[in-house]
C-alpha cells in the first residue's frame, strides 16, 4: 500500500498540482508523438512555439490581461526584476517605493543603483504587520513609477485591493511584485502599469519570471540595461531574444491548463481559485485566532491568503512541532529564518483538504502539549 | 511495437540522454522518498541542498576545475552573460574581443554598453570559416579581459587549443564562451580566467547558465551590475542569492552523473566523451569531404566537433532533404536561418550510432537524387 502524498507547505519553490507533474512525467521522453521531450526542442521549432503560444494565450485569458499589455516570459526571478524594473522604467530619475516587508525592502535597496529612490511609505513601525493606508502615502511629484509588493511572502501581508494611484493624484504607473500571489486572485489592470513575479509559487519551476507590462511603458530602458532584460527587446522578439527557459514555460502552461479546469461554486479558473483560497485562508486563520497556543500577528485587513506565518506561544516547542508535523505528512512548515516561527504557504496547488489536515494537526498538537 | 526513438540533431535546446529523462520522469512526483518532486522543494531545504552540492562536486570533478575557481549556477544564458561579463570584469574600462562568428559578434556589441571594446581579431573576411591565428591578434595593452567564443554554434568553428595569452605577452584573463562545447572535452584552466555557458546544449534545460570564475577576478563589479548577476554576490551565497533554477540544476546533476558513467577506450567521464566526440565528428566530416553532393566550408583545423553545418550543392533539394530526413527519424537538421543549409549538432547526448544513421541517410539520399 502506498502512503498518501504529503501536503507540502513550502513558501517556494512550492507544491505543483499532482496532475501537472504526472502529465510532465508521462510526456518526458516524447511530447505528443514528436519523438522529443520538451527539454530537447529547439525554441524556434513549431512544437515549442505551439506550447509557448498556448501558455501565453491561457495566462492572458486566466488573468483577463487587456490587449495593450505585453506578456513576457523572462529569467532572473523577483530579485533580478528588482534591478530590471528600474533599468527599464526609471530613466535614471526618481522612483517611489512602499515598503511593507522583506521583499519590498530588497526592491528599495536594489533600485537605488539606478535612480533616486523615494520611500513613499513604510510598515516598519508595525514590524510589517500591516500596510500603511494609501491615503497617507507621500508620493514624489516626479516619480517614474510607484513600486508595491502586493503579497509579502515572509511577513504574510497582502494587499486585498490595489492602490488607486490616480485617486491619490499620482499619474505614475503602479508596479506590482505579485510573485507570491499571482493567479490566486483577479487583477484590476486599470490600476497597474507593470506586474512581475517569479514562477516558483503559483506558476511552475524556479527560473521563470512572468512580466506583464503596459505597452506605453516600453522604449525607455537605460543604456546599461542588458539586452536580455530589456522589456522592449524581449517583447519585440516574443520572449525569444535569448533562449527562454523552455521547460519552465511548458510546466507553467500545464499549470495554466489545470487552473482553467478548476471549478468552485459555479465559478471557473482564477475566480474559482480565489473562492477556494478565501475558504482555505479563513479555515486556517479562524483556527489560529481561536487558540492561545498559536498566534498570527498580522492586521486582519491585510492577512495574506497565501502565506500564513504563525508562532507557538512557547517557542521551545518549535522543534517538536516541526518533527511531529513532518511525521504527520505536513512538510516544510518552518518559518523564514528572519522572523522565525512557522509558516504555512497555501498556494493554489494546496487543496482545502490539506489546510484541513493542517488545522487538525494543529488542534491535536495543542491538545497533547497544552 | 514502438518505433525507435528518433535522433535529435537540434543545436539547442538539444537532446538529453534518455537515461536522464527516464530517471527524471520516475522521480517527478517523489524524489528519493521525500514526498516531493524536485520542482517543489525549497532551495534552502536539505533535500535540494544535497542535489546542489552533488552537482557542483560532479562538475568540478568532470572538468577538473581547480579549487581557486568558483562554480556558479546562474540564469540568463549566454546572451545574458554578454552583459554580465563586462558588468563584472570590465570596470568600465577596456575589453578585447576576438570575433569568430555570430556569437562573439553578439558579445562584442553587447559589451560596448559597459566599456571600450577593442576588436583584437576577426574572422569576418573568411566569412567565419576559420579563426585568425592568435599570433596575429592585436590585444590592447590595458584590456581588462580578452573574450573568445571557443565554439561558434552557427558557423561550426571551434578552438581545438585555447589561446595562450601569456605567450602573446598579455596578462589579462581569458574569458571563454563555451556554451556549445562545455563538457565535450577537457579545459586547460591554466589559460582561463572565466568560462561561461548556457546549459541547453551539453548540460540540461535552457534557463541555467554555468559560470566558472577564478577567485581573483571577483570583487570588481560595476555599480550598475544587478545583484542577482554580480558574480561576487552569487559566489558568496553559493548561487542562492536569488532562487536558482532548481529543476535545471537537478537535470544538470543527472547529466553529470551520466557523464561520469561513460566509458570509451579505457577512459571515463569527459575524457571518454572527448574520444567519442572525435570519432563522431570524423565519421561525419570524412563522409562530407568524400562527397560532392554535400560540403562543409570550414577550415579543417577549426572544424567544430559539436556543430557541423553542411550544404547541399543543389540548394533546391533542401526541402526534400529535410522532409526525407525527418521521415527517417533524423530530427532538427535545418541550418540556422542566418547561413542557411543544414546543421547536425552532435553533442554529448548523440551516440555514434546516431551519426552513423545520419551518414547512412546522407549516402542514401545522394544515391537516389544524384
**Main sheet of chain A, how many strands, which sense, barrel?**
7 strands, mixed
What is the H/E string of chain A?
A: EHHEHEHEEEEEEEHHEEHEEHEEH
Tell me the number of structural domains of chain A: 2
The CATH architecture of the largest domain in chain A would be 3-Layer(aba) Sandwich
> Helix content range of the residues of chain A, please?
25-40%
The name CATH uses for the topology of the largest domain in chain A is: Aspartate Aminotransferase, domain 2
Strand order of the largest sheet of chain A: 2-10-9-8-5-3-4
Q: Given the structure, what is the number of helices of chain A?
A: 9
Quaternary state reads homodimer
CATH superfamily of the largest domain in chain A: Type I PLP-dependent aspartate aminotransferase-like (Major domain)
Instruction: Using the coordinates above, name the CATH class of the largest domain in chain A.
Output: Alpha Beta
Biggest contact: A-B, 67 and 67 residues
State which percent range the strand residues of chain A make up: 15-25%
Beta strands of chain A, count:
16
Structure write-up:
- Two copies of one chain form a homodimer.
- Chain A has two domains: 22-259, Aspartate Aminotransferase, domain 2, CATH 3.40.640; 265-369, Aspartate Aminotransferase, domain 1 (Alpha-Beta Complex), CATH 3.90.1150.
- A seven-stranded mixed β-sheet of chain A has the order 2-10-9-8-5-3-4.
- In chain A, a hairpin with a 4-residue loop joins strand 6 (151-152) and strand 7.
- The first copy, chain A, is built from nine helices and 16 strands.
- The two termini of chain A are 34 Å apart.
- The first copy, chain A, has 370 residues and is of the alpha/beta class.
- Helix content of chain A is 33%, strand content 17%.
- In chain A, helix 1 packs across helix 6 (246-261).
- At the A-B interface, helix 1, helix 3 and helix 6 of A face helix 1, helix 3 and helix 6 of B.
Amino acid at each position: 500500500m502506498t502512503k498518501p502524498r504529503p501536503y507540502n507547505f513550502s513558501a517556494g519553490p512550492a507544491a505543483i498540482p499532482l496532475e501537472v507533474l504526472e502529465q510532465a512525467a508521462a510526456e518526458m521522453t516524447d511530447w505528443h508523438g514528436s519523438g522529443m521531450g520538451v527539454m530537447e526542442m529547439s525554441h524556434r521549432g513549431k512544437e515549442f512555439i505551439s506550447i509557448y503560444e498556448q501558455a501565453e494565450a491561457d495566462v492572458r485569458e486566466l488573468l483577463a490581461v487587456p490587449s495593450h499589455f505585453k506578456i513576457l516570459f523572462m529569467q532572473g526571478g523577483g530579485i533580478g526584476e528588482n534591478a530590471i524594473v528600474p533599468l527599464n522604467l526609471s530613466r535614471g530619475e526618481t522612483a517611489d517605493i512602499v515598503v511593507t516587508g522583506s521583499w519590498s525592502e530588497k526592491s528599495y535597496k536594489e533600485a537605488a543603483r539606478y535612480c533616486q529612490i523615494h520611500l513613499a511609505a513604510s510598515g516598519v513601525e508595525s514590524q510589517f504587520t500591516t500596510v500603511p493606508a494609501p491615503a497617507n502615502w507621500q508620493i514624489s511629484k516626479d516619480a517614474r513609477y510607484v513600486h508595491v509588493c502586493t503579497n509579502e511572502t515572509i511577513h504574510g501581508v497582502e494587499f486585498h485591493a490595489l492602490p488607486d494611484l490616480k485617486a491619490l493624484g499620482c499619474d505614475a504607473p503602479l508596479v506590482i511584485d505579485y510573485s507570491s500571489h499571482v493567479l490566486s486572485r483577479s487583477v484590476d489592470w486599470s490600476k497597474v502599469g507593470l506586474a512581475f513575479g517569479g514562477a516558483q509559487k503559483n506558476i511552475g519551476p524556479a527560473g521563470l519570471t512572468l512580466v506583464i507590462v503596459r505597452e506605453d511603458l516600453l522604449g525607455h530602458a537605460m543604456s546599461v540595461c542588458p539586452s536580455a532584460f530589456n522589456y522592449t527587446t524581449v517583447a519585440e522578439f516574443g520572449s525569444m531574444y535569448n533562449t527562454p527557459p523552455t521547460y519552465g514555460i511548458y510546466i507553467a502552461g500545464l499549470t495554466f491548463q489545470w487552473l482553467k479546469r478548476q471549478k468552485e461554486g459555479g465559478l471557473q479558473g482564477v475566480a474559482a481559485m480565489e473562492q477556494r483560497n478565501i475558504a482555505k485562508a479563513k479555515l486556517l486563520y479562524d483556527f489560529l485566532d481561536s487558540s492561545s497556543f498559536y498566534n498570527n500577528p498580522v492586521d486582519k485587513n491585510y492577512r495574506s491568503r497565501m502565506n500564513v506565518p504563525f508562532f507557538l506561544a512557547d517557542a521551545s516547542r518549535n522543534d517538536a512541532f516541526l518533527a511531529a508535523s513532518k511525521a504527520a505528512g505536513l512538510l516544510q512548515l518552518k518559518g523564514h529564518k528572519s522572523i522565525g516561527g512557522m509558516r504555512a504557504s497555501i498556494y493554489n496547488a494546496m487543496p482545502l483538504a490539506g489546510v484541513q489536515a493542517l488545522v487538525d494537526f494543529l488542534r491535536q498538537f495543542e491538545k497533547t502539549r497544552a
